[in-house]
Write a structure and sequence with these properties.
heterotrimer, A mainly alpha (316), B mainly alpha (288), C alpha/beta (420), B: 288 residues, mainly alpha, 10 helices, C: 420 residues, Rossmann fold, 2 domains, five-stranded parallel β-sheet, four-stranded parallel β-sheet, 14 strands, 44% helix
Chain lengths: 316, 288, 420
Amino acid sequence: METLNRQTANIIVWLLLLAMPFWIKALGGYTELCTQVLVYALAAMALNFLLGFTGVLSFGHAAYFGLGAYGVAMTIKYLVASTPLALLVGIVVGTIAAAIIGWLIVNLRGVYFAMVTIAFGQVFYFITFRWNNVTGGDDGLTGWSRVPIDLGFTRIDILHNPTAFYYVVLAIFAVAVGIMAFLLRSPFGRTLLAIRENERRARFLGIPVERHIWLSFLISCLFVSLAGGLYALLNNFVDPRALRWDMSGNFVIIAVLGGMRSFWGPMIGAAIFVVLQDYVSSMTENWMSFLGLFFVLIVLFFPRGVLGILRRKSLS
Amino acid sequence: MTQLILFDTFNGLIVGAFYALMALGLSLIMNLSGVINFAHGGFLAIGGYLAFTLMPFVGFWGGLVLAPILTAAIGLVVERFLIRPLYGRDPLYSLLLTFGLAYIFEDGTRYIWGAQSLPYQIPTVLSSPLSSQFFFLTGYRLFMVVLVAVAVGALFFILKYTRLGVRIRAGTLDLETVSVLGVNVRILRNLNFGLGIYLAGLAGVLAAGMLGLQPTVGSSLIMPSFVAIIVGGLGSLPGTLLGGLLIGVASGLTTVFFPSATEAVMYIMMGLVLLVRPRGLLGEEGRF
Amino acid sequence: MTEEIFSKKLDRRTVIKTAALAGAAQIASPFVITARAADVVKIGLDNPLTGTFAAVGKNELIGCQLAVEQINAKGGILGRKVDLLVEDSTSGDAGTAVQKARKLIDRDKVNFLLGNVNSALALAMAQVSNEKGVFHVVPGGHTDAVTGATCHWNVFRVCNPTQTEANAVTPSLIKNMGKKWYYITPDYAFGHTLQAGLEKACAKAGGTKVGGDLTPLGTTDFSSYLIKAQAAKPDVIIMLPQGDDMINLMKQAVQFGLDKKIHLAGGQQELEALEGLPPEARIGTWVFEWYWNQPGVAHVADFVAAIKKKTGRVPTARTWFGFAATWSCKLAAENAKSLEAVKMAKAFQGFKLPPEIALMPDTAFYREGQNQLIPNLWVGNAQGKGSAGPDDLFHVTQVVKGADVSETLQETGCKMTWPA
């Protein structure tokens, strides 16, 4: 029964995503907004791999998001005009950085892990911020744009057709999410859950906890840098703020908002967050207060997130 | 050149003392309650703005005394109603909460006092340099260092010799036992939070005299404080102080040789410390 | 009598109801776009309202609002009512600025786009507006490229390029302060081009550069830069940061007593920054791009009074930028008798602003082939207290004609390509 429910839920999610560019217009949205939801969803789901399923709090994921973004932008601007290749470079750059940083900090836990990830995130922020000649510094990196994808038999013009770009992002999103779901169901994923539930016991069972956390960090950052790359393509632009700690905070709140114990939670969180931010910041210049209040209310009253509440309701 | 290096070392110590003041407040709260207070910069701004508002009535000195106390009072209320419900939960939640508060404080100060920088005037006694050669040693900056020294001294005195301080230190090591021994942990945490925010408020008043007073004044100062804590050693207040001074000097000296790495050098230092001595310079062994 | 009360009651109830409905409609509007009446002309302002540039962004907004009120009172644009849609671009997040620009163009279908204070964001927005072919006025983003190397047929600019400002202020700096210059420059597009402009102008006038440092946006402590600057023994320290950074820098330099040893001066200065400084730090020679105290110039007093009535404060250059930019939209449309961007832009080449909009002694015009407004500039000294009240913080020594200090069209590097 439950698997059936889960399958129905999955089908509904994918159908909604497939049709999003159509129904969002009826609600007053626009295609770029859909793509943005997907990008944030991917980033938050990737973060949740670490946060929700390994129980490790990183507050510096924006760094890898931004590295992915700069990887893509700089590849297209300076190296080759190819979207897939640029994405690949972005992922590699973000993941290598994560491998090194992860190795440095994997022994820390809890608040201290969070703090050190914030601080390391800032390192990359300042590098992009100050290294003007290469990164464009505070002005951001302009003068490039996403390149149509040539598949041999056909050409997808993702530059001028936002709907085509949405579907390309959706396809990439599907693959990434599929891999993450597969990993979580594998023995490796189960081990991560064991570490989350009781690290000490896992250690006694002979599980190399540090290595697992490192790997989880790595996988999480890999997909976050993919999301960052897509973000750069979406805007045809990157600037250092993609790496700053407020961005990391956004990812965490998205995961919590949707429900970090559930796989699709961050996706729902992303939809709510992106639409709400877009909406409130058009309504009032005091949007920061609303956003802050939103954080406070969620933490105090809905710590389980939307899906957490729904699940509880359905149980009772 | 040697003169430049000497100057920048001195100057770095002054700047570092300021970072340390902020970092100590953060560190105090984190050690006892496990809360990373992202809103610390917001409290700092509030301290500065309150001093500005009070100035016409009580003057600079009155503001210096009153504004941090009022800020601390706000801190007590925030702790009581917003942070207290989160103890015992994943530290993630308190982090997100203070993150949200930081947004609200920035926007709130802008709403109340406006986006425009406010001219905060310091007494003329303090506003001139003491010698024309060491021009960067202004009365105000020296006063700031002295005040930081006094505040730090008082803080360490409180922690070492008063009942509250002993309990805070004991609670930092083992909160459960302290609680079992009959200490009201809630009040302890509340007062401790207030103490930390008091330091933020004090830093805010001092900052207002040196920097422009605008809603974002705190957010640019919070990251160096984080780094100071990590470099000095998580859980160690003397370490935090040392960390603050060190990064002040390091970034001062970097300006002489390689100005574009002025901020990055703090983080590089942090990386090195974590690599060589993961618990930080003065952090206690085995805690983290 | 009873009847009157009755009807009043009814009235109030209706009013409340209508208000509630209107409120609900407004809250719902982003989701239910019922295509606002097509007879409205929409101007979209995508400018900072939060962050470092919040204060100047807000002043531009006020200028825009006043202009829209005046335009609507005079029959709108081509007989249609004008709506001002405002989006917060944030002060430095270009991703947000670009998204908001897209949103204004794609979803709200604005006829005109305005913004941005931040040079980098202005460039990024120009890329979007050009791609979509929307008439775009940049009120206050100064970097040269906007109407220089990356100029676009659809992008007009009210404020000056940094090179113009540099040329305007340099003779006074050399004359009053000396020839050895040290630069403290903010590390982004605006700072780079302003410093380059000053270096060029300074070399032409026989001055030299003895050193310089780039400071990141948001620097709070300038002491180590000042120590370095002082050690280089310049005649003048040229201070180019803007906004809050400028305030931090000036405050610290004056506390260090540097003003008693070395001249402190710079390029562009703004009333917003001077207001944020304590009186003793309001010093130095600078250039203003518009100043409210212009005795004897027609229409200026009316404008100052209108803004004062609105906000209680005098207008700044920023208020005027917003005002002139918004009026430019109306003038462009009515001059071309059309709302088509290409037609408006073509008809606007070389357009002279009427004096009640220009609010300055000489004629201000949009230069043909560059879309850059060529106005007056005000060179003078900051002052703690002026003769014309507490808001008179700038003593004007010379009103420069923009045409005399602007680069030639070739020098700007602007090569405009029109859509086929």
